[in-house]
Amino acid sequence: MGACLGICTLASCASCLCGSAPCLLSGCCPSTKNSVMTRLLYVFFLLLGTAVSVIMIVPGIETELRKLPGFCEGSSSIPFIEGRVNCNVIVGYKSVYRMCFAMAAFFFLFAVLMIQVKSSKGPRGALQNGFWFFKFLALVGITVGAFFIPDGTFTTVWFYFGVVGAFCFILIQLILLIDFAHSWTQSWVENMEEGNGRCWYAALFFCTAFNYIVSLAAVVVFYVFYTKPDACAINKTFISLNLIFCIIVSIVSVLPKVQESQPHSGLLQASVITLYTMYVTWSAMTNEPDRNCNPSLLSIVHQTTSNSTTATPPDQVVQWWDAQSIVGLVIFLICVLYSSIRSSTNAQVNKLMMTEEGEGALAEFSSPGEDGAHRAVDNEQDAVTYSYSFFHFCLLLASLYIMMTLTNWYSPNSDYSSLQSTWPAVWVKISSSWVGLLLYLWTLVAPLILSDRDFT
């Protein structure tokens, strides 16, 4: 009897693994919709690959693998087994390139397969929302194959793909950030107008002031530690320009004409954009090759506590697991989750991200049935709520962004025993901050310039 029940349980699990996303997750989640759970499962695949990349790049893993009998070339071998695996390729920065190449190839395949899918009824819709076990096997197979790619010029070529893809994903992050700031301001202003206005006004004022204070403190820190009186002219230019640009967009956001066309725009949005711009500026400066203008966080702390002005040695090796990498990973995680569960109420953002208008993340979770049971809901039988193909393309770009973040944007031509930063990373990041500011400025003035179009 127990064996029969076990077989039935396994059969039920197998059917869920081959079925839809709500079937797989509705048992432990609220009543859900395909449009949310499917995206979350693909994001889980991305995060799983990211976790593997992090593990393989952690210092000490290569040393431990060399201890395994018959695993690495040159390691101690067991009888009749010869080590064939090159640990320098399997573990380290090159392994991140191969792991992220596998994820990018996986999402590129689905981006091509899902072009012009109109509903979940067709076979391609079923492939998008089901067959998870086979998708996982496909991802594992592509990953294994990626580690057999000859070293040669692979990392050099893939580095340039990574730079372009990461730049595009940073722009997507900026779009999502602008949408988040817009939604945040709109929600709090509406709550302030509906009742208890003093509390909401105080919260609005506190968050805005906090963002600006942190941004101003960051500017001071940048000038103190990332510039020198007779050097670091590029850093001085970056900091000064972005400070001026942030002041300009903050002033524009409260101009009477802008407030008249967009009543919900204001300093809270501008403060969020300013804070993110300061982060991108810092991230760009941490990739500068000149170590005198790019001190590590530990050296800054040591300099502060010891009151020493000794410069960081120029030949110091930059570690991959630094502060800006951690912050970059956190922002990446927030953005991919936000893009998966959020349906924007802004029509322009929906056009850019190829999603339909919705009521937000909470609206995507339906209530239990009359009997209290949680059931899966397929809300895409008539039409899809987001572009399947564009969603996979965004995850492809996210894979490339993760690759560049984990490797600190290091050039693959560098000596892998002492990796150094490169200038392309600096210019990609700082230019993305300028594009982001320009994009936010356009959202403010576009309704005034194109008065015949609907920007609600």
Characterization of this structure:
By secondary structure, the chain is mainly alpha-helical. The protein has helices spanning 2-17, 21-25, 34-57, 61-66, 87-90, 93-113, 123-129, 132-146, 154-194, 197-225, 233-253, 256-261, 267-285, 297-306, 323-341, 347-353, 388-406, 423-449.
Task: Please provide a brief summary of the model.
With 456 residues, this protein is mostly helical. The protein is built from 18 helices and no strands. Helix 9 packs antiparallel against helix 13.
Topology readout:
Blueprint lengths: L1 H16 L3 H5 L8 H24 L3 H6 L20 H4 L2 H21 L9 H7 L2 H15 L7 H41 L2 H29 L7 H21 L2 H6 L5 H19 L11 H10 L16 H19 L5 H7 L34 H19 L16 H27 L7
